[in-house]
Amino acid sequence: MSEIGQDKFSESAFWDKVSTQRVYAAFDDEEYNEVFDRALPGDLSGTKIIDVGSASGVSAALLAARGAKVMGIDLSPALVDQARELWKDFAERISFKVGDAESLDETEASVDVAFFGGVLHHFPERENVCREAFRVIRPGGKFVAIEPNLRDFLERIEWEVARWRGKLTPNEEPIDPYHMQQELEAAGFTQVRFWTTRHDIPVLAQFPILHHFFSRRKGFWIKSPLLAVINALRQPESRGTFFVIEAQRP
Predict the structure, then answer these.
(1) Residues facing residue 245 across a β-bridge
(2) Distance CA 16, CA 141 (A)
(3) Structural domain boundaries, residue 175
(4) 94 strand-pairing partners
(5) Sequence-ordered list of residues with C-beta below 8 angstroms from that of 205, at least 6 positions apart, any chain
(6) Is the residue at 124 inside a domain?
(7) Residue 127 lies in a domain
(8) Domain-located, residue 157
(9) Phi and psi for 243 in degrees, rounded to 5?
């Protein structure tokens, strides 16, 4: 394992600042729900979920709305405070606390699901995170994550522009889904599989003027035909700026 670790001070400071600017969620409600419909289908009543990197609590609230009991954990104290304030109506089913994905304050085999919504790519080395997730998930429980896809060259381009604009933390890098699969298997998980999502040309939204015409919701009258041509020339695992990966603890 490399000695390169996460710069936790810079990470926390970055997200504390974000909390003063907006309610932050890595994905839209529709995107979260599409993932939950596929990876965690049905009524989640009685299911205990740990939402690691819960940010402003949007994903935790969506899971609670499906009946789950959710513990939201984030490295940023300011985001935790914001989430507590935003989701008071779900207080019986959601709690939030400051925590570190590499050292979870949860007992062994205590949760049914560990969910990571755009979190793992903030760790230059993910061995400790995978090990901790395996530890806290009960046998038969699930690991679910959504991460930026290194194999999509459109995502790599967007990443470099975002870094140039100062929109990324020092820790962030997109992930190769096959490497993530190997890391989860090395941690002891089984039935590891992934699929791609968010089919887009995201770099267009990085430019201030173009942002008004191209976003996650806009500009697909141009982007769709372009993506159809591009996708015809590449493998399925490269078609999608993000991927969802799930696994089971045996």
Answers:
(1) 145, 194
(2) 32
(3) 8-200+237-248
(4) 70
(5) 211, 214, 215, 216
(6) yes
(7) yes
(8) yes
(9) -135, 150
